[in-house]
Amino acid sequence: MNSRLTTPEQGLIGLPGVNDGDAISVVNTVLIVTVVVTALAFDFTNGFHDTANAMATSIATGALKPKVAVAIAAVLNLVGAFLSISVAATIASGIVNAQIVTPAIVFAGLVGAICWNLVTWLFGLPSSSSHALIGGVVGATLVAAGTGAVKFDGIISKVLVPAVISPILAGVVALLATALAYKLTQRVNQDASSRSFKRGQIASASLVSLAHGTNDAQKTMGVITLALISGHFLPAGAKPPVWVIIAAGTAIAAGTYIGGWRVIRTLGKGLTDISPTQGFAAETAASAVILAGTHFGFPLSTTHVCSGGILGSGLGRKLAEVRWGLAGRMITAWVITLPSAAVVGAVVTFAAEKIGGGVGVLIMALIAAIFAGYVFYRARQNPVNANNVNDPMAGGIPAPAPVHAGAAA
Questions:
Q1: 86-95, 261-270, 274-283, 339-348: range with lowest mean pLDDT
Q2: What range does the domain containing 124 cover?
Q3: d(CA 72, CA 279)
């Protein structure tokens, strides 16, 4: 499909009679700023959506107090953002053709990812922010630039195959580690064993947070870099500038500190009843898989990996209950994440094009902001926060909670 969004001059203006170079430069700059702000907004939602990946089990077992846990996760997410840019390079150049993609396409993909993050967060479903982002960008690119601009081989090898393998690998490792830990400590005083594994959880949960920063923060860096390249602010193949690394790391850390309490409760209380031994095994397995993925430049879903670890730890403990109904709903959400975000990205691209270039992007940004406000309003009707995050869940579904003062998260 040939679209006005496929060339900088046509895609960035969209205003009758505005053709001179200065106007193009101004509108281009405004659009890039809009894309960067939207990318950081996505990074923020990624932070509060995925806090559960690192800290749900530690909070559920009482190894860490809720607010202490999210503070540790925030700091280590920020630190992790500076340790690697391999995943950022994959997002910037391995998914779509940066020479064809425009800032408006990147914006539409981000909107698709943000909308999916907010919807799944509202329902407490631990879905993949990574796949939402990739799906949104791919959907927007398909509508605006056609199939030739999408690197399907890269998506299969770098995204889909690791998405299938990583949670299974984390689950198997966590299962074996849990079974071994219980075997080795069966003659040890259970209270002493529990205290020891709680202390170990502080280290293992911190390692997951660090690994999360090395992988998830990179994705926003990659998207911003892609936008800067497509807007001709950076040369093709450029690495993320330092200010992009700092901004992305800070945004995901801020979101993490807010605390994704709804998803934390699902992972910590919904899938299985976690003991400190299980929590330590699940977190250690997940961090090892995530760090390995980061090393090879795979944009892994930390949600998938950590959920696999928790399920594995449940299977590794005798008589532990695994709530397969909730697990099935989570897997369904995982499967539809890429196409759902892709559809939203495609719709936003199409609507922005019909309205007219830069103006269309700004209007779609306003609509996205209104949608986000509505989701947060709905969340406040049944808040989950640090005070009730460890409340029981009925059948894997968050029990009705009284309205407390303060913001729900």
A1: 86-95
A2: 36-391
A3: 17
Question: At 239, which amino acid appears?
Answer: K
How would residue 4 be classed by pLDDT, with cut points 50, 70 and 90? very low
Judge contact between 229 and 238, C-beta under 8 A: yes
**Residue 99 identity:** Q
CA of 30: how far to CAs of 13, 223, 229, in Å?
A: 10, 17, 15
Reading the block at residue 219, the tokens are 């994705």
Rounded Cα distance between 81 and 218, Å, is: 7
**SS3 per-residue string spanning 257-326:** HHCCHHHHHHHHHHCECCCHHHHHHHHHHHHHHHHHHHHCCCCCCHHHHHHHHHHHHHHCCCCCCECHHH
Tell how far CA 94 is from the center of its chain: 18
Tens of pLDDT, residues 368-408: 999 999 998 998 888 887 777 777 655 444 443 333 333 34
Over range 327-356, report the average pLDDT.
89
Give yes or no for a contact between 114 and 322, defined as CB atoms under 8 angstroms apart: no
Look up the pTM and report it. 0.76
- Is the Cβ–Cβ distance between 369 and 114 less than 8 Å? no
Domain-located, residue 30: no
Based on the structure, what is the number of domains in the chain? 1
Q: How far apart are CA 357 and CA 373, in angstroms?
A: 25
Domain contains 313:
yes
Tokens 């539409």 sit at which residue?
A: 108
List the one residue out of 313, 109, 325 whose CA is nearest residue 230.
109
Contact 87, 273 (CB under 8 A): no
Inside any domain, residue 27? no
- Distance from C-alpha of 353 to C-alpha of 5, rounded to nearest angstrom: 7
Q: Give the list of residues 6+ apart from residue 140 with CB closer than 8 angstroms, or none.
A: 105, 106, 107, 108, 109, 112, 345, 346, 348, 349
- 192 is a domain residue: yes
Read out DSSP for 69-134? HHHHHHHHHHHHTTT--HHHHHHHHSSB-TTT--HHHHHHHHHHHHHHHHHHHHTT----HHHHHH
Would the pLDDT of 340 be above 90?
Answer: yes
Sequence-distant (6+) residues with CB within 8 A of 85 are 218, 221, 239, 240, 245
